[in-house]
Amino acid sequence: MAKGGDVRVTITLECTSCTRDSVEKKYPGVSRYTTQKNRRNTPIRPELRKFCPYCYKHTIHGEMKK
């Protein structure tokens, strides 16, 4: 039996190069990926190189705040 809460959580990765300064940041043209991370092994916000279809190149995608 598992102790405590969920260890694996679903996170959203967002392109850091094609984000514009906005309060909402929920509009077409921003590349987002969903993945999972283990809270115990990765307590920091991960940054991965993923393909952005709006920039047409591989860019850094960082975990966004919820």
UniProtKB/TrEMBL annotation:
GO terms for biological process: translation. GO terms for cellular component: chloroplast; ribonucleoprotein complex; ribosome. One of its GO terms (molecular function) is structural constituent of ribosome. Gene3D superfamilies: Ribosomal protein L33. Keywords: Chloroplast, Plastid, Ribonucleoprotein, Ribosomal protein. InterPro entries: Ribosomal_bL33, Ribosomal_bL33_sf, Ribosomal_zn-bd. It is found in: Plastid, Chloroplast. It comes from the Eukaryota. Its main location: plastid. PANTHER family: 50S RIBOSOMAL PROTEIN L33, CHLOROPLASTIC, LARGE RIBOSOMAL SUBUNIT PROTEIN BL33C. Belongs to the bacterial ribosomal protein bL33 family. This is Large ribosomal subunit protein bL33c. It comes from Zamia fischeri (Cycad). The lineage of its organism: Eukaryota, Viridiplantae, Streptophyta, Embryophyta, Tracheophyta. The gene is rpl33.
